[in-house]
């Protein structure tokens, strides 16, 4: 049931789209925090469920940064309330953040929300956001608005998405990515984050939904992978299909990608991370579509494995969506790269920017489902090799 007090938390409900920008494959956007609001440029981390910013008292070296970090200072906001609690949490496999907890007002995508819990980090800020070596001195990100669908734990603060639930008409966030991105490290306005509903402005409904495979990832199960012409990619190591925000290509275990390359007559590189290439003759031959049949018996003992109960949906890649000509047109490249190149877990097929282009992906964190919809504009073919790097 919709919260009875929902109207007092909403202003400009129609404009619930937030512009997404890109830096080093990291998506970020502007979120206003506090009274006399300050604009924070926060990363949308699909693998972390927490909302954190950098505290004004945090001791970090910003001497090599071209842009100083925007910090949260509770004394500058008349709407803040201290929870008198500290909170330590992990944002990845390396970094653990120590923070103080506050309540304050925010505005995201035109929606104003009162008294949301914010972790104000004092230690453990990831080095990629405050590099001390001179690398990436232009990093624009001041913290994270984590979008992983982790369930609440009574011993921890509520996660970002669960904090939003009672303020939204639907517990949904949707990521849309445009199809004509360039090769720059920094790209402005690469799409939108739609809060509280599906994006029907840029993508074609109805969305295809399937249950999440895990409670902490944008991932669903893989039932099987088929290629047109009655071919199938068999005995794959990957059992799940995951959306990632830090990768450019589509990624598979090397063993599976070698098998796919064999079907497509692509040259298998000797080094891990090398491109899988097709010569010009193979480039001109018709290539199959690749269909991911998603869904199936859920992972874990709590879920039925009765085949009659399997619900699936399909995602199909046309050849131009996974093969691209090089700059000089004398060969083609697969837009799949090995998981090993990015140190991704081989239990996943990981889908980065190339997959997300001209596509919407929605997450309903209450029902535990992920949805897919194609964009309304035709997908652009990547033509230049430098655009792949």
Automatic annotation (TrEMBL):
User: What's one Pfam family here?
Assistant: Asp
According to its UniProt entry, one GO biological process term is:
proteolysis
Q: Supply the InterPro entries for this chain.
A: Aspartic_peptidase_A1 (IPR001461), Pepsin-like_dom (IPR034164), PEPTIDASE_A1 (IPR033121), Peptidase_aspartic_dom_sf (IPR021109)
**One Gene Ontology molecular-function label:** aspartic-type endopeptidase activity
- Peptidase A1 domain span: 27-373
Which Gene3D superfamilies has this protein been placed in? Acid Proteases
Which family is this sequence assigned to? Belongs to the peptidase A1 family.
Please give the name of this protein: Peptidase A1 domain-containing protein
